[in-house]
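subagent[fold] <- orchestrator: predict structure for attached chain, return tokens only, no commentary.
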Amino acid sequence: MTTPALPSAPPGPDSHGPVEPTASRDDSITAWALAARSGDPVAVDRFVRALHRDVRCYVAHLCHDAQAVDDLAQDTFLRALGSLHRFEGRSTARTWLMSIARRAVIDSYRYAATRPRSSDSADWQAAVERAQPRNLPGFEDGIALLDLVATLPAERREAFLLTQLVGLPYAEAAAASGCPVGTVRSRVARARATLTDQLAAAEHEQQATPTTA
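subagent[fold] -> orchestrator:
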């Protein structure tokens, strides 16, 4: 396969240029992954930097061990870099990487099942807070998105995370999760309904709480 020309790096968080559309960004990241197969260090660096936050966000929401988040993210990229020679660009690099991250989390659960495991909920929530995007519309008034998402059943939480936070299209989220597109749509719809109800209840409770002078 002919490796496409290496695109320019997407704007960083301090850039004043326009934000690259998701489709264009995915094309760029996929091109970097294809270029990285030959060991191009610039392409490898851009590929890792472009998706590191998405991977951390994803694994932080799937696992309940704060100290495991960085290890799982590192394991994901080590697996991906070791398998780049098999990546042919049939899906976006982001979809491919999220599938690897999902397997890394599943493998960690299987390993943890054979030994005692402790979990600190406060530390885990802090890790998720650091990993998630800020100022998401629709969750104002001090309602923490991570607290609401954490209450969802695992399959709905994963579908919501992939499509609404990581930003994968439904078809790619289905490929990453290993289930039909219709299943993903159903899980996201149910997750949204649950989150909407929880948000409304929280707002109602907040309004009903008397304020002190």
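orchestrator: received. Logging for downstream: The chain has nine helices and no strands. Confidence is low (pLDDT under 50) at residues 1-21, 116-125, 127-143.
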